Amino acid sequence: MAKKITHEIPSLWEMNPIWNVLTDSEKEYIHQHAQAYAYRKNEVIHSEGDTPTHMMMIISGTLRVYKGGVGNRTAIIRMLKPHDLFAYRAIIAGGTYNTSVSCCEPCEIYFIEREAFMYIIKENAQFCYLMMVEMAKDLGGSDTRSVNIGQKHIRGRLAETLLYLKDTYGLDDDQATISMYMSREDLANLSNMTTSNAIRTLANFAEEEVISIDGRKIKILDMQRLKHINQLG
To answer: DSSP class of residue 152?
Structure first.
């Protein structure tokens, strides 16, 4: 069960520059209509088909955006990281959520009331434009990944997913270890394959010294080879 955060946290505009285009009075208005909550690992933030009541921004933690598939299989559409905005498309479109979102790890999340968000969208043209840019990026990224994952073989899918995680979350100080730890099930769902196939392909990559595996940590040993596998599909 989500718990309201009572300790001090950074403001929205300290974490994401998109909010800095608001005037001081608009920032105060948003502050009055925003709350922050803490979630446990695997808790659901919202479900497919729910009616949106808030747009959201991640303070800390990582989230999975997913859809239910055939045979109770889950397809992860994309991953979200700290300071990412989400849950706004359905508000702007006036519909229900077409995806679900849950926590990969303990998370803290800002909730901004739908009416307050729409007020700022209508009143601040620059903020509205920046939200359009965010939405276009999300749509373009999802379209590209959907096509690529659908057309590639298992090795190409997993290579693309590892590169996607590297680009999204970055690398540790060693400039090789992906700064995000995923369960094998999540890795499989993000790659549109079974968990057993993901585990087997990861093992093959490790045997070929493309990557190394230490628990849930994945270290890229041969970036060029991984990119080549991705390009081959």
So the answer is: S
Residue 137 phi, psi dihedral angles, 5° rounding:
-65, -45
pLDDT per residue as tens digits for the range 134-175: 888 887 666 666 666 667 889 999 999 999 999 999 999 999
Q: Does residue 116 carry a pLDDT above 90? A: yes
According to DSSP, the residues that pair with 68 across neighbouring strands are 74
Q: What average pLDDT score do residues 18-30 get?
A: 96
Query: What pLDDT score does 143 carry?
Result: 62
Reported as type and span, the H/E element at residue 61 is: none
Backbone angles phi, psi at 22, to 5 degrees: -75, 150
Measured CA distances, 180 to 75, 105, 156, 195 (Å): 19, 10, 20, 18
3-state secondary structure of 217: strand
3-class DSSP state of 22: coil
